Amino acid sequence: MLGRVMGSAAMRQVRLAVVVLLAARAMVVAEGDAADAVAEPTAATARATDAGKAADPPAAYPRVDLAPDRVAVPDWPRHPADWKPAAVPSIAIDRDGTIWAYTRSNPVVQVFEPDGAFVAGWREEDPRTVPHAIRFDREGNVWLVDVGLHVARRFDRSGRPNLVLGVLGEAGTDASHLDKPTDIAFAADGGIFVSDGYGNNRVVHYDRTGTFVRSWGVLGVERGSFSLPHSIAIDSRDRIYVADRNNVRVQVFDREGRLLDVWSNVLVPWTFSILPDDSIWVCGSAPMTWSIHPDYPTAPLGCPPKDQLVMRFDTAGRLHELWTLPKGRDGAERPGDVNWIHGLAVGPDGAVYVGDIIGKRLQKFVRR
To answer: What domains can be seen in the chain, in order of their start residue?
Structure first.
Protein backbone atom coordinates (compact mmCIF):
# COMPACT_ATOMS: atom_id res chain seq x y z
CA MET A 1 0.00 0.00 0.00
CA LEU A 2 1.23 3.46 -0.77
CA GLY A 3 1.14 5.67 2.28
CA ARG A 4 -0.90 8.85 1.91
CA VAL A 5 0.32 12.27 3.00
CA MET A 6 -1.55 15.50 2.78
CA GLY A 7 -0.71 18.81 0.79
CA SER A 8 21.42 -5.18 -51.06
CA ALA A 9 19.75 -8.20 -49.53
CA ALA A 10 22.95 -9.25 -47.77
CA MET A 11 23.77 -5.72 -46.74
CA ARG A 12 20.24 -5.22 -45.59
CA GLN A 13 20.56 -8.32 -43.43
CA VAL A 14 23.83 -7.01 -41.96
CA ARG A 15 22.24 -3.66 -41.21
CA LEU A 16 19.24 -5.35 -39.67
CA ALA A 17 21.47 -7.47 -37.46
CA VAL A 18 23.39 -4.41 -36.29
CA VAL A 19 20.21 -2.53 -35.43
CA VAL A 20 18.76 -5.46 -33.53
CA LEU A 21 22.07 -5.99 -31.69
CA LEU A 22 22.16 -2.36 -30.64
CA ALA A 23 18.56 -2.48 -29.58
CA ALA A 24 19.15 -5.65 -27.57
CA ARG A 25 22.07 -3.99 -25.83
CA ALA A 26 19.79 -1.22 -24.74
CA MET A 27 17.35 -3.69 -23.25
CA VAL A 28 19.78 -5.39 -20.89
CA VAL A 29 20.82 -2.28 -19.03
CA ALA A 30 18.63 -0.65 -16.46
CA GLU A 31 16.06 1.42 -18.26
CA GLY A 32 17.71 4.64 -19.34
CA ASP A 33 14.90 6.36 -17.78
CA ALA A 34 15.22 3.80 -15.02
CA ALA A 35 18.96 4.11 -14.90
CA ASP A 36 18.45 7.81 -15.11
CA ALA A 37 16.39 7.41 -11.99
CA VAL A 38 17.68 4.61 -9.81
CA ALA A 39 21.10 6.15 -9.62
CA GLU A 40 20.37 9.62 -10.84
CA PRO A 41 22.68 10.34 -13.79
CA THR A 42 26.03 11.76 -12.90
CA ALA A 43 26.40 13.62 -16.19
CA ALA A 44 25.75 16.96 -14.56
CA THR A 45 28.65 16.31 -12.21
CA ALA A 46 30.89 14.70 -14.82
CA ARG A 47 30.44 17.57 -17.24
CA ALA A 48 30.72 20.35 -14.71
CA THR A 49 33.44 22.92 -15.20
CA ASP A 50 36.06 23.69 -12.59
CA ALA A 51 33.89 26.60 -11.59
CA GLY A 52 31.14 24.17 -10.69
CA LYS A 53 28.84 25.08 -13.58
CA ALA A 54 27.27 22.56 -15.93
CA ALA A 55 29.11 22.36 -19.25
CA ASP A 56 27.31 23.21 -22.47
CA PRO A 57 26.00 20.26 -24.49
CA PRO A 58 26.88 20.05 -28.20
CA ALA A 59 26.15 23.24 -30.11
CA ALA A 60 23.64 21.41 -32.28
CA TYR A 61 21.20 21.27 -29.38
CA PRO A 62 18.63 24.03 -29.80
CA ARG A 63 18.68 26.92 -27.37
CA VAL A 64 15.87 28.88 -29.02
CA ASP A 65 12.26 28.50 -27.97
CA LEU A 66 10.37 27.44 -31.10
CA ALA A 67 7.03 27.43 -29.33
CA PRO A 68 6.42 31.17 -29.45
CA ASP A 69 2.71 30.88 -28.70
CA ARG A 70 3.28 29.02 -25.43
CA VAL A 71 5.01 30.03 -22.25
CA ALA A 72 5.88 28.25 -19.02
CA VAL A 73 3.93 29.35 -15.97
CA PRO A 74 6.45 30.63 -13.40
CA ASP A 75 6.71 28.95 -10.01
CA TRP A 76 4.37 26.14 -10.99
CA PRO A 77 3.66 23.88 -9.17
CA ARG A 78 4.11 24.30 -5.43
CA HIS A 79 5.59 20.99 -4.26
CA PRO A 80 5.29 19.82 -0.66
CA ALA A 81 8.10 20.99 1.59
CA ASP A 82 9.64 17.53 2.01
CA TRP A 83 9.89 16.78 -1.72
CA LYS A 84 13.42 16.54 -3.09
CA PRO A 85 13.73 17.39 -6.80
CA ALA A 86 13.74 14.22 -8.88
CA ALA A 87 12.70 12.90 -12.27
CA VAL A 88 9.03 13.36 -13.17
CA PRO A 89 8.42 10.56 -15.69
CA SER A 90 4.64 10.80 -16.00
CA ILE A 91 1.61 13.06 -15.60
CA ALA A 92 -2.12 12.37 -15.80
CA ILE A 93 -5.22 14.53 -15.45
CA ASP A 94 -8.35 13.18 -13.81
CA ARG A 95 -11.95 13.87 -14.83
CA ASP A 96 -12.07 16.85 -12.46
CA GLY A 97 -9.07 18.51 -14.11
CA THR A 98 -6.72 17.78 -11.23
CA ILE A 99 -3.09 17.09 -12.18
CA TRP A 100 -1.41 13.93 -10.90
CA ALA A 101 2.39 13.64 -11.16
CA TYR A 102 4.30 10.38 -10.75
CA THR A 103 7.78 11.21 -9.47
CA ARG A 104 10.96 9.43 -8.48
CA SER A 105 10.99 10.96 -5.04
CA ASN A 106 8.59 10.97 -2.13
CA PRO A 107 5.76 11.71 -2.20
CA VAL A 108 5.95 9.50 -5.28
CA VAL A 109 2.46 10.58 -6.38
CA GLN A 110 1.65 14.27 -6.09
CA VAL A 111 -1.72 15.85 -6.80
CA PHE A 112 -2.10 19.51 -7.78
CA GLU A 113 -4.84 21.93 -8.62
CA PRO A 114 -4.52 23.66 -12.02
CA ASP A 115 -3.21 26.75 -10.20
CA GLY A 116 -0.33 24.67 -8.80
CA ALA A 117 -1.58 24.22 -5.24
CA PHE A 118 -0.52 20.92 -3.71
CA VAL A 119 -3.52 18.81 -2.71
CA ALA A 120 -2.23 15.44 -1.52
CA GLY A 121 0.42 12.79 -2.08
CA TRP A 122 1.22 9.12 -1.68
CA ARG A 123 4.50 7.66 -0.48
CA GLU A 124 6.28 4.53 -1.77
CA GLU A 125 8.83 2.95 0.54
CA ASP A 126 9.93 -0.04 -1.59
CA PRO A 127 13.54 0.76 -2.59
CA ARG A 128 13.16 -1.23 -5.83
CA THR A 129 10.57 1.14 -7.26
CA VAL A 130 11.24 2.97 -10.53
CA PRO A 131 8.12 4.97 -11.42
CA HIS A 132 7.36 5.17 -15.14
CA ALA A 133 3.70 5.91 -15.95
CA ILE A 134 0.51 7.08 -14.27
CA ARG A 135 -2.88 6.74 -15.99
CA PHE A 136 -6.59 6.83 -15.22
CA ASP A 137 -8.92 4.14 -16.53
CA ARG A 138 -12.42 4.95 -17.76
CA GLU A 139 -13.85 4.40 -14.29
CA GLY A 140 -11.48 6.89 -12.70
CA ASN A 141 -9.13 4.42 -11.03
CA VAL A 142 -5.46 5.34 -10.73
CA TRP A 143 -2.88 3.04 -12.34
CA LEU A 144 0.86 3.16 -11.69
CA VAL A 145 3.34 1.37 -13.96
CA ASP A 146 6.64 0.59 -12.25
CA VAL A 147 9.73 -0.49 -14.21
CA GLY A 148 11.65 -1.50 -11.11
CA LEU A 149 8.86 -3.58 -9.58
CA HIS A 150 7.80 -5.11 -12.96
CA VAL A 151 4.11 -4.42 -12.33
CA ALA A 152 1.16 -2.26 -13.25
CA ARG A 153 -1.05 -1.64 -10.22
CA ARG A 154 -4.53 -0.22 -9.82
CA PHE A 155 -5.27 1.96 -6.80
CA ASP A 156 -8.27 3.61 -5.29
CA ARG A 157 -8.09 7.35 -4.66
CA SER A 158 -6.69 6.86 -1.17
CA GLY A 159 -3.65 4.92 -2.42
CA ARG A 160 -4.80 1.37 -1.68
CA PRO A 161 -3.89 -1.17 -4.40
CA ASN A 162 -6.73 -3.43 -5.53
CA LEU A 163 -5.35 -5.10 -8.69
CA VAL A 164 -1.82 -6.06 -9.72
CA LEU A 165 -0.71 -7.07 -13.23
CA GLY A 166 2.58 -8.95 -13.11
CA VAL A 167 4.40 -10.31 -10.08
CA LEU A 168 5.75 -7.70 -7.69
CA GLY A 169 9.54 -7.46 -7.96
CA GLU A 170 9.82 -10.41 -10.36
CA ALA A 171 10.49 -10.20 -14.11
CA GLY A 172 9.39 -12.89 -16.56
CA THR A 173 8.20 -13.67 -20.06
CA ASP A 174 5.08 -15.76 -19.42
CA ALA A 175 1.43 -14.76 -19.08
CA SER A 176 1.81 -14.05 -15.37
CA HIS A 177 4.82 -11.77 -15.55
CA LEU A 178 5.95 -8.48 -16.99
CA ASP A 179 9.52 -7.28 -17.52
CA LYS A 180 10.09 -3.56 -17.07
CA PRO A 181 6.64 -2.45 -18.28
CA THR A 182 6.40 1.13 -19.43
CA ASP A 183 2.76 2.22 -19.84
CA ILE A 184 -0.88 1.16 -19.77
CA ALA A 185 -4.05 2.00 -21.74
CA PHE A 186 -7.73 1.07 -21.57
CA ALA A 187 -10.28 0.04 -24.21
CA ALA A 188 -13.95 1.01 -24.23
CA ASP A 189 -15.00 -2.34 -22.72
CA GLY A 190 -12.46 -2.06 -19.90
CA GLY A 191 -9.81 -4.19 -21.63
CA ILE A 192 -6.30 -3.40 -20.45
CA PHE A 193 -3.22 -3.08 -22.66
CA VAL A 194 0.33 -2.83 -21.27
CA SER A 195 3.48 -1.91 -23.18
CA ASP A 196 5.94 -4.42 -21.78
CA GLY A 197 8.51 -2.63 -22.42
CA TYR A 198 12.22 -2.65 -21.72
CA GLY A 199 12.44 -6.40 -21.15
CA ASN A 200 9.88 -8.17 -23.32
CA ASN A 201 9.24 -5.83 -26.27
CA ARG A 202 5.59 -6.78 -26.50
CA VAL A 203 2.07 -5.59 -25.83
CA VAL A 204 0.06 -7.56 -23.28
CA HIS A 205 -3.75 -7.61 -23.36
CA TYR A 206 -5.80 -8.37 -20.24
CA ASP A 207 -9.55 -8.30 -19.76
CA ARG A 208 -11.10 -5.85 -17.32
CA THR A 209 -10.53 -8.23 -14.39
CA GLY A 210 -6.80 -8.54 -15.10
CA THR A 211 -7.00 -11.98 -16.75
CA PHE A 212 -4.42 -12.51 -19.49
CA VAL A 213 -5.92 -12.57 -23.01
CA ARG A 214 -2.99 -12.41 -25.44
CA SER A 215 0.31 -10.73 -26.19
CA TRP A 216 2.07 -9.75 -29.38
CA GLY A 217 5.44 -8.39 -30.45
CA VAL A 218 9.10 -9.39 -30.39
CA LEU A 219 12.38 -7.50 -30.48
CA GLY A 220 13.13 -6.43 -34.05
CA VAL A 221 12.86 -3.78 -36.72
CA GLU A 222 10.22 -5.41 -38.94
CA ARG A 223 6.75 -3.89 -39.03
CA GLY A 224 4.82 -5.17 -36.05
CA SER A 225 7.90 -5.89 -33.95
CA PHE A 226 9.30 -3.53 -31.35
CA SER A 227 12.49 -2.06 -30.01
CA LEU A 228 11.44 -0.51 -26.73
CA PRO A 229 7.68 0.04 -26.73
CA HIS A 230 7.84 3.02 -24.42
CA SER A 231 4.24 4.23 -24.31
CA ILE A 232 0.77 3.05 -25.33
CA ALA A 233 -2.57 4.78 -25.86
CA ILE A 234 -6.04 3.98 -27.23
CA ASP A 235 -8.39 6.26 -29.17
CA SER A 236 -12.20 6.33 -29.20
CA ARG A 237 -12.31 3.58 -31.86
CA ASP A 238 -10.07 1.26 -29.82
CA ARG A 239 -7.13 1.77 -32.15
CA ILE A 240 -3.96 1.09 -30.18
CA TYR A 241 -0.95 3.39 -30.60
CA VAL A 242 2.48 2.14 -29.52
CA ALA A 243 5.51 4.40 -29.18
CA ASP A 244 8.16 2.12 -30.70
CA ARG A 245 10.90 4.38 -29.46
CA ASN A 246 14.18 2.87 -30.64
CA ASN A 247 12.63 2.10 -34.04
CA VAL A 248 11.69 5.78 -34.37
CA ARG A 249 8.05 5.17 -35.18
CA VAL A 250 4.51 4.97 -33.94
CA GLN A 251 2.73 1.71 -34.76
CA VAL A 252 -1.06 1.41 -34.78
CA PHE A 253 -2.88 -1.87 -34.07
CA ASP A 254 -6.39 -3.16 -33.57
CA ARG A 255 -7.40 -4.95 -30.38
CA GLU A 256 -6.27 -8.33 -31.72
CA GLY A 257 -2.78 -7.04 -32.48
CA ARG A 258 -3.25 -6.68 -36.24
CA LEU A 259 -1.08 -3.91 -37.62
CA LEU A 260 -3.08 -1.03 -39.11
CA ASP A 261 -0.56 1.72 -39.74
CA VAL A 262 3.03 2.84 -39.14
CA TRP A 263 4.24 6.43 -38.77
CA SER A 264 7.98 6.20 -39.39
CA ASN A 265 10.87 8.63 -38.95
CA VAL A 266 8.79 11.55 -37.77
CA LEU A 267 10.08 11.65 -34.21
CA VAL A 268 11.52 9.44 -31.52
CA PRO A 269 8.31 8.95 -29.50
CA TRP A 270 8.52 8.87 -25.73
CA THR A 271 4.98 9.43 -24.42
CA PHE A 272 1.38 9.85 -25.64
CA SER A 273 -1.53 11.92 -24.44
CA ILE A 274 -4.80 11.32 -26.35
CA LEU A 275 -7.68 13.74 -25.86
CA PRO A 276 -11.43 12.98 -26.08
CA ASP A 277 -11.49 14.42 -29.62
CA ASP A 278 -8.78 11.86 -30.60
CA SER A 279 -6.07 14.48 -30.89
CA ILE A 280 -2.88 12.51 -30.37
CA TRP A 281 -0.18 14.43 -28.56
CA VAL A 282 3.32 12.95 -28.56
CA CYS A 283 6.51 14.16 -26.94
CA GLY A 284 10.03 13.06 -27.79
CA SER A 285 12.89 14.15 -30.00
CA ALA A 286 13.95 14.35 -33.64
CA PRO A 287 15.39 11.21 -35.31
CA MET A 288 19.13 10.91 -34.79
CA THR A 289 22.06 8.56 -35.30
CA TRP A 290 22.10 5.99 -32.49
CA SER A 291 25.24 5.91 -30.39
CA ILE A 292 26.35 5.34 -26.82
CA HIS A 293 27.00 8.74 -25.29
CA PRO A 294 30.10 8.82 -23.04
CA ASP A 295 28.32 10.88 -20.42
CA TYR A 296 25.45 8.37 -20.24
CA PRO A 297 27.11 4.96 -20.74
CA THR A 298 24.24 2.94 -19.24
CA ALA A 299 21.42 4.80 -20.96
CA PRO A 300 19.56 3.19 -23.87
CA LEU A 301 19.75 4.29 -27.48
CA GLY A 302 18.57 7.79 -28.19
CA CYS A 303 19.80 9.22 -24.91
CA PRO A 304 20.55 12.01 -24.54
CA PRO A 305 17.83 13.15 -26.94
CA LYS A 306 18.83 15.43 -29.79
CA ASP A 307 16.19 18.03 -28.97
CA GLN A 308 12.81 18.28 -27.27
CA LEU A 309 9.63 18.11 -29.35
CA VAL A 310 5.90 18.12 -28.77
CA MET A 311 3.66 17.16 -31.72
CA ARG A 312 -0.09 16.87 -32.23
CA PHE A 313 -1.45 14.38 -34.79
CA ASP A 314 -4.85 13.19 -35.94
CA THR A 315 -5.63 9.47 -36.09
CA ALA A 316 -4.42 9.27 -39.72
CA GLY A 317 -0.97 10.44 -38.66
CA ARG A 318 -1.30 13.94 -40.11
CA LEU A 319 0.70 16.51 -38.17
CA HIS A 320 -1.30 19.50 -36.94
CA GLU A 321 1.04 21.12 -34.46
CA LEU A 322 4.77 21.10 -33.70
CA TRP A 323 6.77 22.97 -31.17
CA THR A 324 10.36 22.65 -30.05
CA LEU A 325 11.26 23.41 -26.47
CA PRO A 326 14.77 24.59 -25.64
CA LYS A 327 16.85 21.72 -24.27
CA GLY A 328 18.26 22.61 -20.89
CA ARG A 329 21.82 22.18 -19.73
CA ASP A 330 22.24 19.44 -17.15
CA GLY A 331 21.96 21.05 -13.75
CA ALA A 332 21.38 24.53 -15.14
CA GLU A 333 17.92 24.40 -16.70
CA ARG A 334 16.10 27.69 -17.07
CA PRO A 335 12.34 28.17 -16.77
CA GLY A 336 10.77 26.75 -19.92
CA ASP A 337 13.77 24.54 -20.70
CA VAL A 338 13.14 20.79 -20.85
CA ASN A 339 15.77 18.10 -20.38
CA TRP A 340 14.81 14.55 -21.42
CA ILE A 341 11.08 15.11 -21.81
CA HIS A 342 9.23 12.03 -20.56
CA GLY A 343 5.81 12.95 -19.21
CA LEU A 344 3.02 14.72 -21.10
CA ALA A 345 -0.59 15.58 -20.38
CA VAL A 346 -2.98 18.11 -21.92
CA GLY A 347 -5.71 19.70 -19.85
CA PRO A 348 -9.29 20.49 -20.92
CA ASP A 349 -8.32 24.16 -21.16
CA GLY A 350 -5.42 23.39 -23.54
CA ALA A 351 -2.69 23.75 -20.94
CA VAL A 352 0.21 21.38 -21.60
CA TYR A 353 1.96 19.72 -18.68
CA VAL A 354 5.48 18.37 -19.17
CA GLY A 355 7.70 16.28 -16.91
CA ASP A 356 11.36 15.59 -17.57
CA ILE A 357 14.02 13.22 -16.31
CA ILE A 358 17.27 15.15 -16.08
CA GLY A 359 15.61 18.50 -15.47
CA LYS A 360 13.80 16.93 -12.50
CA ARG A 361 10.68 19.00 -12.68
CA LEU A 362 7.09 19.37 -13.73
CA GLN A 363 6.10 22.41 -15.81
CA LYS A 364 2.88 23.90 -17.13
CA PHE A 365 2.73 25.66 -20.51
CA VAL A 366 -0.13 27.95 -21.51
CA ARG A 367 -0.81 30.08 -24.56
CA ARG A 368 0.58 33.59 -24.41
So the answer is: 3-367 (2.120.10.30)
